[in-house]
Each structure stands twice: as C-alpha cells, then as structure tokens.
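new request in #modeling-help
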Amino acid sequence: MHAVQEFAYAVIVLETTDDAVPVGRREQNKIDTRRAIADAAIDLALSVGPGSFTVDQIAVRAGVSRRTFFNYFHSAEDALTVRTDGFLDLALEVFGRMPQDEPLFDSIIRAFTETTRMEGLSQHGALFRMADSNPDLLRAQLHSWERAEVRIVEGLRRRLGADASELYLTALVGSVLSCTKAAMRDWAAVSHDSTGNPGQELEERILAVLTMLRDGFSPRTTGPVSRA
Amino acid sequence: MHAVQEFAYAVIVLETTDDAVPVGRREQNKIDTRRAIADAAIDLALSVGPGSFTVDQIAVRAGVSRRTFFNYFHSAEDALTVRTDGFLDLALEVFGRMPQDEPLFDSIIRAFTETTRMEGLSQHGALFRMADSNPDLLRAQLHSWERAEVRIVEGLRRRLGADASELYLTALVGSVLSCTKAAMRDWAAVSHDSTGNPGQELEERILAVLTMLRDGFSPRTTGPVSRA
DNA sequence: CGAATTCTTGCACAGCGTGCAACAAGATGT
DNA sequence: ACATCTTGTTGCACGCTGTGCAAGAATTCG
C-alpha cells in the first residue's frame, strides 16, 4: 500500500508537463517511493538526530514496508545522501553543457558555482554538520562523493579524449571535489542564522578554492575567506 | 586467554630495545592484541576475499573473543584499514621532521615519497584493489583517509601558524590526499607480477601528481604516466 | 480481458554492535 | 610477598541490520 500513490495522478501531471517525457506508472511510482523514503529519512534525521532512529521508523513514515526500504537503499545513512548525490549529479550535468572550447578550469568552476544557484541548499548544510557527530553518515557521504568522482572522471574523459592519462584525470577530479567538499564544509560550519545569502556565501568559497587549485597552491595566498 | 600473550616476553624485549621506551605489560598486550586482530582480518581478506568472512572468524583466528574484537574495532572492515592508517600516520610523522624553512610543497612531496620507501607496500595494493568490489571496505578506507586529513590539517596548522584560513588548509590537504590516493589507486591497478620495483613505481606517481598539484593543473600536461 | 512482467511485502535467519556484570591480569603501595 | 585498586577480557542478552525467498498485488502488453 503506497502512501505516496494517493497523489500519483497529480504528480504525474506535474512531472509530465515539466519534462514533456510521459513516464510510465511503474517508473513514476518508483521515483515517488524513493523520494518518500529519502524525505522521511531526512525529516527524521533533522528532528531526532542522525543515528537515533531505525529503518523501521523511516519505512513507517514513508508508508512502506521495511523490506521495501532495503530494495531502495542499503542502509539508513544511504537514504541521507540523495541530496549530495543530486547536487553532484546536477553539477556534472551542468558541466556537460559547457562549451568545449572554453578553458577546462573555467568550465569546472562555472559548473559548480552555477549549480549552487539552482540547488535548494537548506538541507545540505545541516546534513554536512550531522556527519561531524555520526561516523556512519560521514562514511555514506564520503562514498557519495566517491561515486560522483567516478562519474565525473567519465564525463571529463569524454571531453578531453584519450589525451589525458587515467592518473591525471583521477587526480584532477579528486582535487576538484576535495576543494569543493572543503568549501561546503567550511560553509556549513558557519551558523546560518539568516545572515546574508547562504547560496552566495557558498559560491564565493567554491570560486576561491577552485581558483586556488587552478593556479597552484602557494602559502603566500592564505585564502580570502577566514574564520575565527 | 591471549593467544598473543605466549610471545609477550620476547616482544617486549624486542620493542624495548627498539624504542628505549619501557612500555608496561598492559599497554604492550593491547598493542599485540590489536596487531593480532588486524593481521587475522587481513589474512582472511587475502585468502577468502573481503566481505566473505564474519567477525567471529577474525576473533577465533586472532585468539580473542568476539566481544574483544569489538573493543578494538567497530566492524570487520575497520580492521582492514590499519595499514592505510599506518601509512598516513607515518607520512605525517615524516612531514613533521621536515625543516620549517623548506618550501611547503617540497616538504609535502618529500614526506610522501620518503614514506613510500619505509612502508612495506605488499598488502597496500591488494587492499586497495579489494575496495573496488566491496563498498563497505571502500567506505572504511575513505574514512581512514578522512581521519588522516584531520590530523594532517592539524599538523600543518602548527607549521603555518594562524596565517592560513581553515578553508585554505582543508582544501590544500584534501587535494594533496586526493592526489596521493589517485596515485596509489593507479599504482595498485597495474598488476604487480614482479615487474620492476613496486615502491619506486608508486613514488614516481606520487611525485608526478603532487608536482602537478603544486604548479596548478593544466590540460597541456597530461601526465607522464599512462595506462592502457 | 488474460498473460507476462515487475514491484511490494511478510517471513525467516544469520550476523552485527553494544550494555552489563563477572572475572582475570596487570599495576600500586606497604 | 600480599592486599588492593585499576584496567582489560569474556560471555550473555537483546534489538537492529541486511538479504534470500516465495506469495501476492500492481502495471504493462498483446
């Protein structure tokens, strides 16, 4: 019994008008279920804290059986990484739309900074901070970045062709993601009590740190953004 | 009943003459037990493959109860990261011995390349490759690198003083570790059937990739090492 | 509508991770 | 050497995890 399914028609109409891709009922139900589970997990994590709830509770809240939960995610923490996955997937997609003749690092920087503007960032900060006190969640998030790294390397290989060695590609992408991760961590660490535009603050950090990476690290430039 | 403890005397003598730090029996037993567990886990992983054995099997092989295993490690995969932890700890220690007036990146590069020469690398490659087919082990390893990142940031902060922002530090260390990780992955991927000196091959990769990072990535240099 | 496909669900089961209390081994002081 | 305190080990119990399997329900297809 899908709790989600009650809204199936409405959602289909909305999604269809958006994508103009008439997706079947099966596929749509799976998308909805996945969403419902992820939302339930995030809600729970935000309310009672990460690691303080069971898979059963997520399943109940999502209107799904325990077994079905495990058909979609391997663990409770995995359900909390859909936001991270989504962000990185979107960044990759945006990157794919960049002009091929543009300098590589300009494309990379723009891909990430522009992605920041589209994504709802409200939950990202909280999720990031949770990882500080929850090793399992941290691992899940690290895995999420790792999976994205593989996809991005593939996308980059398509752009650079066979010129670049595998080592160069993985080192480059790994560094870019490490810097982005550092920027998001730093951004998430500052308390977001309605001070300025959060999205812009993140964008500035990403820009700063990726520029630093492009030009080579050097101790003289200690970075424009500093924290107490 | 420690199986390890049978050798307690001999080990103590050896260790004491090495370190000149007379460590108590308690502490020494813990070190031995930890070693025994880790060795048992790695042996099992190498023989039957990762994820194909239980904690009980590790405990039995280490001559320790199941409960004691969990006093030392949180999971079977955690016991497989002691090598990675050791490598990164050693690198940090070597880095700490570098002259303060040396250019930062020279110290970093030398710290890693020299660490490669001291560490027994036989198991590192195998452990790295295992992670490809075992998500849990991959997560554990990623976590290991993450923990090291924190320690290294701290060590670097001590060297750079308060000049460097937290964002700069984490981005720098994260990139360095990502590059090193990429080098080790690339190195581990090639089959090590007695072709040349494995240690040197790894060292070359680390040197290449960290130099690239220091000078800034640029698509013209596609990296000296290429794979089929 | 009937058949084929695919998803959900309940069940069962081995294994995980931890709190707890009893016990053993090492450390400490006289 | 002995009594005592501290610290580490062990077995037990218990709830939760993750997965294979088969039955049933929903969707798709002809």
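bot summary: Residues 122 and 194 of chain B are 11 Å apart (CA to CA).
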